[in-house]
Amino acid sequence: MSRNYFIAGNWKMHKTRSEAATLAKELVAGLKDGKHKYLVAPSFTALETVSAIVKGSNILLGAQNCAAEEQGAHTGEVSVLQLKDVGVQTIILGHSERRHIYKEDDELINRKMRLALKHGFEVILCVGELLEEREAGKAEAVCKHQTVEGLKGISAADMPRVTIAYEPVWAIGTGKTATPEDADAIHAYIRSVVSELYGVDAAKKLIIQYGGSVKAENTAALMAKENIDGALVGGASLKADTFIPIAKF
Ligand code: PEP
To answer: Domain containing 196 — which CATH number?
Structure first.
């Protein structure tokens, strides 16, 4: 398989600037000989601090969200122009907490996707089903819908800058992980959806991360699966001694 593993840490709403700086420095030192692609996504308030620390390292700087508009009267929002200004390279969009707590719908997420790609960012599009959707046998349908709607209007030329993260909502922050087999089945399905949209070659090149209670103990088994190309890590990304073993699996 020619796809590179991509391990990303989503720090969510954690860490002051000095805490973020400490972690970022530990990661730069700890991952400098790491073989995979890496990213950290701090809170907006810590982006500038972390940007200065990861600059020139093998760790990309990510944002956890962006506004759907370029700029203007949007109180409380952060624009792609502002993210570019502080050195952000990648934007996480459609995270389940954005979808389910902050009620972002597919149409809004798609507008953000298109804007971020237009401005040259890489994006990580998160998709994943709720527990009741899985129990009702709808996991594939939900992931297909979120993938198709999220990618609407995105050209094949932009697809190399798109990563998809499959994050079953019931596995996020709960300690419950999808089995490698269950996760791989959904990853393969998402890849087939992308193949229908963009062709076999684009689908083969697509990086699909798994997210949901990833920790050092379960990383290797997940990453051994044919269609799992990395991880989007929440809780375990908040400390160097839990993130580095995942990142260097
Ligand atoms: C996430 O927030 O993307 C996530 C997967 O969180 P956790 O690793 O804590 O389940």
So the answer is: 3.20.20.70
